[in-house]
Design a protein that fits this description.
Blueprint: H1 2-29, H2 33-54, H3 61-67, E1 75-76, E2 80-81, H4 82-101, H5 109-123, H6 131-152, H7 158-184, H8 187-191, E3 201-203, E4 206-208, H9 210-215, H10 218-230, H11 234-254, H12 257-273, H13 277-293, H14 298-303, H15 309-326, H16 337-344, H17 363-390, H18 400-416, H19 426-453
Antiparallel strand pairs: 1-2, 3-4
Helix pairs in contact: 1-2, 3-4, 3-7, 4-6, 5-6, 5-17, 6-19, 7-10, 7-11, 7-19, 10-11, 10-18, 11-13, 12-18, 15-16, 15-17, 18-19
Length: 455
């Protein structure tokens, strides 16, 4: 009786507060657009705050996940992007929730490797070539690593994990649809030669690099593919195959060679590790149809890969290797690849010169030049530990197919990182963080199974 009375009081107070908020919103809404926006904020902010306190993985983190493919377009003044703000809020929300419920999960082994790598990167400030470059690089690495750490120790339910996978898939499909619409809706491209054009997402002064845009679709492609393979509903399978074709078509329009090969890596891994051979054949047909039926410069760029040295990548790597040879142990300091590259640019014979101040276009080259052989060892430890954390899910575990999905996405991510720098991009860390969350889901299910079998 006392509990029922207390619950009634809470419900009454909640309804009263909701009525007051709604009344304030109605009073504010009578006027200009600014007043209407304030009215919406009056209603939305309390609801968002409540959601962040109760289910921070669903809000704001799920919204962050949804918007990751649009990251560079969502500029918020000089602060950065909306996804950056949502990432910061998500980190604080999940940590506060863990402290409130007094439940923090044991960190994965990969987190220890990441801490060691970051400590070595911070230590490189003592021998860095350009301290300004190191200081500029610090916030990017630390913010992404801290969000990963917060998510890796936050308990997550299977339902929440499914919602996050859904948000990732929806974000990828929406980004693909937006990109295709922008490509064919651009009068300049329609008037020009579509066979030589590339999809470059633009909104005002903001743009997304075609390769980064395409690489951000790899994880959603892995998720939607596994969903289409597993579901028994024909309508949902058809929708899944359509989503795969849409994302592969967007990748083809971006003419990103490494991303298309990354899709091939996911397909090959699924053929090897899953039992869905027939369905994978349909996936391959959908993907090939998407690449052949869109007008794209993809195949032209593949044909020119040898003639251009991979768009100058071979020359970049040769300069990076020359720089690495001179400071192979500790490197030139975090964020100092460009400075080291410029020092050795004219000292290295090159068949396909890229030009001054080049990005590394290869994660191993970048880490080797900046942090030396020690940094490479720590990076290898981090990735190996990420896979070992997933190894707790055996073939008999109900989350085994999710493990295969995550491993395929991780392998594709590592593959494309050999052709482009992505360690400061949110979509890369989204894959790594989701792998850590899958580990927590699997551990919880294993614990429940052991408890059910106990006498």
């Amino acid at each position: 009786m006392a509990k029922r009375l207390a619950r009634t009081r809470v419900d009454t107070v909640s309804l009263a507060m909701a009525a007051i908020i709604l009344l304030c919103a109605l009073l504010l809404a009578k006027g200009s657009t600014t007043r209407i926006a304030l009215a919406v904020a009056v209603v939305a902010v309390p609801l968002a705050t409540y959601a962040a306190l109760r289910r921070p993985l669903l809000f704001p983190y799920a919204l962050y996940v949804l918007l990751v493919p649009f990251d560079n377009l969502l500029l918020v003044s000089s602060f950065g992007t909306l996804t950056k703000l949502l990432g910061i809020l998500s980190g604080f929300a999940v940590v506060f929730w863990c402290l409130r419920v007094k439940h923090i999960a044991l960190p994965p082994h990969a987190m220890y490797a990441l801490v060691a790598l970051l400590c070595w990167a911070l230590a490189s400030m003592y021998w860095t070539v350009s301290g300004a470059e190191t200081i500029a690089a610090l916030p990017q690495y630390l913010s992404l690593a801290l969000l990963y750490a917060a998510l890796a120790i936050t308990p997550v339910t299977l339902q929440e994990f499914r919602w996050l996978l859904g948000a990732t898939a929806i974000g990828g499909i929406a980004a693909a649809a937006y990109g295709i619409h922008q490509f064919y809706g651009n009068p300049f491209d329609i008037a020009g030669n579509l066979l030589t054009a590339r999809l470059v997402i633009q909104a005002g002064n903001a743009t997304i690099d075609p390769n980064q845009f395409a690489d951000a679709l790899l994880f959603p492609t892995a998720i939607v593919t596994m969903f289409a393979l597993r579901t028994r509903w024909l309508l949902l399978k058809t929708a899944g195959f359509a989503g795969i074709a849409l994302m592969v078509a967007a990748i083809a329009l971006s003419a990103s060679r490494e991303a298309l090969l990354g899709v091939g890596v996911i397909v090959a891994y699924y053929l090897w590790r899953t039992r869905y051979r027939l369905e994978m054949g349909i996936v391959v047909i959908c993907g090939l149809a998407a690449t052949f039926f869109v007008q794209s410069s993809m195949w032209l760029r593949f044909g020119r890969a040898i003639a251009t040295g991979g768009a100058g990548r071979l020359s970049i790597w040769s300069v990076g290797f020359e720089a690495f040879r001179h400071r192979w142990l500790a490197g030139y300091g975090m964020g100092n690849f460009t400075a080291a590259y410029d020092d050795y640019y004219l000292k290295t014979p090159q068949g396909y010169p890229y030009g001054w101040s080049s990005p590394p276009h290869n994660l191993l080259v970048q880490v080797g030049v900046e942090l030396g052989i020690i940094g490479l060892v720590l990076l290898a430890w981090f990735f190996v530990a990420t896979f070992r954390d997933l190894a707790v899910i055996d073939r008999d575990h109900p989350r085994y197919e999710d493990r295969v999905m995550m491993e395929a996405a991780l392998i594709a991510l590592i593959f494309v990182s050999m052709f482009i720098g992505l360690f400061t991009y949110k979509y890369a860390w989204l894959v790594i963080a989701t792998a850590a969350q899958l580990r927590l889901v699997a551990q919880n299910e294993s614990a429940r199974r052991r408890a059910a079998r106990a006498p």
